[in-house]
Amino acid sequence: MYAILVIDEEDEGGIIVASNEIVEQQQAYVLIGRFLTEKNINFNAMQNVMASLWRPKEGMEVNDIGGMRYSFTFFHKMDIQKVIDGGPWSFEQATLLTHQLEMGEDPCTVKMQDVEMWVQIYDIPRGFLSENILKNAGDSMGKFIRVEPNTFDGVWKQYVRIRVVINVEKPLKRRMKIKREEDNCIGLILNMSVWELSVLSVVFLVIWNVIATLYIGTLIK
């Protein structure tokens, strides 16, 4: 009976769905996550560790969606925002890349290459501390997000911190140059904060051996 059935590749007409026909599901906020490791992840241990770190007030649901990707579903906006703002996170020294899923995106194919972190900038010359300069510094590494609060309160600081999204498929920069139009170049030292290094150093040493020397002598807490 089944031998006489013919299957076409695609229906020519297709199905047109009106906007008022789209089903509204329970309000949920989804992060897609992927760990920067080739090792197998113990799913039960991972979800228990992440739940203990994040402590979402409204709970969360974790699913293995294949391809070494996981979905983390939250039921309150504040819970997912706390995870985004508090990153980067890790499990067994593997950094977790996350992406907040938008309507219409495929969780199995959405790009997973960015990590949001704090970066310290040292040796800023007098007169060069402005939000525009810090934004340019952040954009030179990836994508600038924001400056740490109280950065411009008038108190001298050994370094300032900016929040940046960094593409893990590109090498990190150790220095960047700035100058007034008539002056020589001045080098600014860029560094991950001590707390971020404890999460990221192992990952970056594996991906880019060339930057291994950047972390020699750095205190890892």
Automatic annotation (TrEMBL):
InterPro entries in UniProt: At4g02000-like, DUF4283
UniProt keyword Membrane present: yes
Transmembrane segments: 194-216
UniProtKB keywords: Membrane, Transmembrane, Transmembrane helix
Superkingdom of source: Eukaryota
Domain DUF4283: from-to ranges: 25-107
Name of the protein: DUF4283 domain-containing protein
Lineage, highest ranks first: Eukaryota, Viridiplantae, Streptophyta, Embryophyta, Tracheophyta
